[in-house]
Every structure is written in C-alpha cells, then in structure tokens.
C-alpha cells in the first residue's frame, strides 16, 4: 500500500499480492486508477471509450472489458492482448473487449513503440472542438502546454482494421495528441502518467475554447493568440516542472485522491 506520508518521489509503489509480476501489477494498478479518475471527472461514456497501457518490456497491452463502467475497473479486470488483438488473459470478467478499442489503440501501440499508454474519450466539449473546422486554437495556456496536435478525418465507428494505417499516419511519428474529427480525442504517453497528463490538459483546453467561442459569438477575430515564441516558452517551462517525465508528479497527486475515495481499483 502507498504510505500516507507524501514522498518527494514521483514514482507510485504498491504491494503486489497478485499472480502478476511486479511490473505488470504496477501497470495494471496505474491504468485502473486512470480509469477511476476519468470516471471521477465524468469524462467517461457509460461502457464506451478506452484507456490502454503496454506492459513494459513486452508486446502486450491492457484494455478494459466491454461492459464494465470506468468506476468499476480494477487491476485484475483488465484484459491482456497481444499487438495482433488476440486475448492472452481475459482478466477477472468474461466480458471480452470492444473491437473498436483494438482498432484505434492497437494500431498506435504497434506503430509507435515509444508510446506506452493511450487514452480515448468523447467528452462533449472535446467532441465540439473535434467538429470545429479550425480545430484546437492556441488561446489558452492549457492548449499551449499540449503543443502540436494531429487530426484524423472521421470514417465512422472504428471497426475497420484498414483504418489503422490511416490513424497511425494521421498521428505521425512524434505527436502525442490526436483529435479524431467528429468523434473525440486520443492522447498518448511514454507512461500512463504522461498520457493522463495530456488527456487532462487537452480536455481543459477544449472546455476553455468552447466557452470562449460562446462569449465572442464565434468571432475568432476577438481572440488573442500568443506568439510562437511564447508558445515554445510555455511548452519548455511546463516540461521542466517534472524532470522524470510529463505528468508523474501530477498523476501521483491524483492517485492519492482516487485511493482515498475508493482503493478497490487495486484488486
């Protein structure tokens, strides 16, 4: 169990009493905590949407069972898949997976070994920005922190494996945030913490943009746009706050919150 004393370390430590290796169990716990946090912020959509994590040092990813709410997800309920979409361990349920989760997330994990975690949501303001022709505008500090964002044109519900190559191409080789036109967003990270960090920042940036556009009646000429120099400064400054990687300190703080509310996600 994590100590009640707050440590300077950004790393989360948990006692492993499961059948899984230490690294797999820790990955499961962090991903389950992320699911609970998404539910806590009300970014979930019944049983839909997905968060994934690659088990470090393997070609296996973890995905939520199809039929379980985000506030029900636990470490042991997560389904283990290989990168071809085959179920290796169905977890503690027999619910299986939603194939759309593999189409989007599996494609990214296969093509981008630098990405350990992906998160996909359909929050109202996020979808509104995804429908907006101009996309995400660099009008808030949160939008500047996110940095460059990729876009993928809508092709309907993601059930076609042929779309995987186009999703990967749209994301590109370096970006970690993808806006799915008319659909939602995908954020990526080199760990669960970083993917959640971008999910938080991008979601808030979209909320601010929708509110701001409503204030100005959609007239973008009334908006102030920071210079490229300021944008670069914001990105570099934000990255310097957490030397061990984007989002680790923030995620650990939120981990303590969700652990206090209900620590059953560790089971």
Automatic annotation (TrEMBL):
GO BP: culmination involved in sorocarp development
Domain Class II aldolase/adducin N-terminal: 29-210
GO cellular component: cytoskeleton
Pfam families registered for this protein in UniProt: Aldolase_II
SUPFAM superfamilies per record: AraD/HMP-PK domain-like
MF terms in GO: actin filament binding
Domain of life of the source: Eukaryota
PANTHER family given in the database record: ADDUCIN, PROTEIN HU-LI TAI SHAO
Full protein name: Class II aldolase/adducin N-terminal domain-containing protein
Native organism: Dictyostelium purpureum (Slime mold)
């Amino acid at each position: 169990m994590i100590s009640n004393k707050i440590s300077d370390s950004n790393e989360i430590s948990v006692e492993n009493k499961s059948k899984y290796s230490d690294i797999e169990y820790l990955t499961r716990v962090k991903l389950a905590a992320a699911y609970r946090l998404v539910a806590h912020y009300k970014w979930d959509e019944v049983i839909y949407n997905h968060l994934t994590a690659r088990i470090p040092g393997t070609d296996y990813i973890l995905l939520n069972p199809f039929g379980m709410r985000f506030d029900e997800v636990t470490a042991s309920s997560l389904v283990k898949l290989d990168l071809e979409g085959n179920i290796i361990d169905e977890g503690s349920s027999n619910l299986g997976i939603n194939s759309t989760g593999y189409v989007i997330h599996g494609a990214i994990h296969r093509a981008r070994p630098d990405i350990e975690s992906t998160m996909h949501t359909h929050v109202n303001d996020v979808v509104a920005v995804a429908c907006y022709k101009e996309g995400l505008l660099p009008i808030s500090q949160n939008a500047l922190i996110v940095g460059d964002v990729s876009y993928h044109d809508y092709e309907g519900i993601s059930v076609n494996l042929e779309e995987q190559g186009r999703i990967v191409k749209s994301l590109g080789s370096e970006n970690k945030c993808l806006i799915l036109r008319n659909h939602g967003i995908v954020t990526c990270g080199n760990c669960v913490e970083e993917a959640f960090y971008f999910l938080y920042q991008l979601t808030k940036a979209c909320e601010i943009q929708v509110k701001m556009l409503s204030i100005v009646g959609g007239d973008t000429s009334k908006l102030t746009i920071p210079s490229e120099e300021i944008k670069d400064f914001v990105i570099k400054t934000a990255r310097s706050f957490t030397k061990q990687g984007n989002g680790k300190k923030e995620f650990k703080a939120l981990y303590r919150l969700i652990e206090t509310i209900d620590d059953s996600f560790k089971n």
